[in-house]
Specification:
With 216 residues, this protein is an alpha/beta fold. It contains 8 helices and 10 strands. The structure holds S-adenosylmethionine.
Length: 216
C-alpha cells in the first residue's frame, strides 16, 4: 500500500518511499526512542552515521530531533540514496545530511566516511535467506531483497558492522542497531567480541528485544 501511495509516516513525519527502499516500520521507531534516551541533550552538534540509510527514516528523523547535528547516510543502492536525498530536502535537513554510496561487503567501504562519529545507527537486513519466501507476499514479493536478506543465519550484516564499529565511533560514541526477533543476544555477543561496551536492550511495543546499544 505504501508503494502505491508513495509515502509512509515515521515518527510523525511523511517519508517518500519507492520499491527501491524498505517501507519504514513502527518497530524501527524503537531505534529513535533508544537514541533520544541515550543522548538526551538535543543542543549538541552530534555527528551521526546511518548504515543502510534506505528511505532515510532513521537518519533524517534524528537530524530533525537534534537541530545542530549533521549526518551521513550510507547505502549500497543508488536508488535508495536518491529517495533519502529527496526526503532530506522535503524535511528541510539536506544542508546537514550527506548521502554516500558504499557496500560494507567490500574492502575499504568506510574510507569515504570521514572522521569518527558520535552515533552510528543501523537497521541492516536481518532476515534469514531461507525464510524470505515464507514472509507475507507484500514483503517477499515487493520489498527489495537487498533490504531484507541477512544471509544464512540473518546476522551477516551485523558481523560486518560489529567489526567496523570501533573504527567508526569516536571515544564515548554510541552504536545503536535494530535487530530481528530472537537476534538481540547474538548481536550483543558480536558487539562485545568487537570490544564495544554493552548498554541495556530496548524492547518494541510488542515486548520484543528490538534494539541493541553499545558504547565505544
Ligand atoms: C532493512 S533496510 C533499512 C532501511 C532504513 N534504514 C529503515 O530503517 O527503514 C536495510 C538497508 O541497508 C541497505 N544495504 C543492504 N546491504 C547493504 C550493504 N552490503 N552495504 C550497504 N547498504 C546495504 C539496503 O539497501 C537497505 O536500504
Amino acid at each position: 500500500m505504501a508503494y502505491i501511495l508513495g509515502e509512509r509516516e515515521f515518527w510523525g513525519r511523511p517519508f517518500k518511499v519507492s520499491p527501491s527502499v524498505l517501507v519504514p516500520r513502527p518497530d524501527s521507531e524503537t531505534v529513535i526512542e533508544a537514541v533520544l534516551g541515550l543522548l538526551p541533550d538535543r543542543t549538541i552538534a552530534w555527528r551521526i552515521l546511518d548504515l543502510g540509510v534506505g528511505s532515510g527514516c532513521l537518519l533524517l528523523t534524528l537530524l530533525r530531533e537534534y537541530p545542530q547535528a549533521s549526518g551521513t547516510g550510507l547505502d549500497a543502492s543508488q536508488d535508495a540514496l536518491a529517495v533519502a536525498q529527496h526526503n532530506a530536502e522535503a524535511l528541510g535537513v539536506s544542508d546537514r545530511a550527506r548521502m554516500v554510496a558504499g557496500d560494507w561487503r567490500k574492502p575499504g567501504w568506510s574510507d569515504a566516511l570521514g572522521p569518527p562519529f558520535d552515533l552510528v545507527v543501523a537497521n541492516p537486513p536481518y532476515i534469514d535467506s531461507g525464510a524470505i519466501e515464507a514472509l507475507m507476499p507484500e514483503v517477499a514479493r515487493f520489498e527489495p531483497r537487498l533490504a531484507l536478506d541477512g544471509g544464512a543465519d540473518g546476522l551477516d550484516a551485523y558481523r560486518r558492522l560489529a567489526d567496523a564499529g570501533p573504527g567508526l565511533l569516536a571515544a564515548g560514541g554510541h552504536f545503536v542497531v535494530e535487530v530481528g526477533a530472537g537476534q538481540a543476544r547474538r548481536v550483543q555477543c558480536l558487539f562485545t567480541s568487537a570490544g564495544l561496551m554493552l548498554l541495556p536492550l530496548w524492547k518494541d511495543l510488542g515486548g520484543i528485544e528490538r534494539v541493541v546499544a553499545a558504547k565505544q
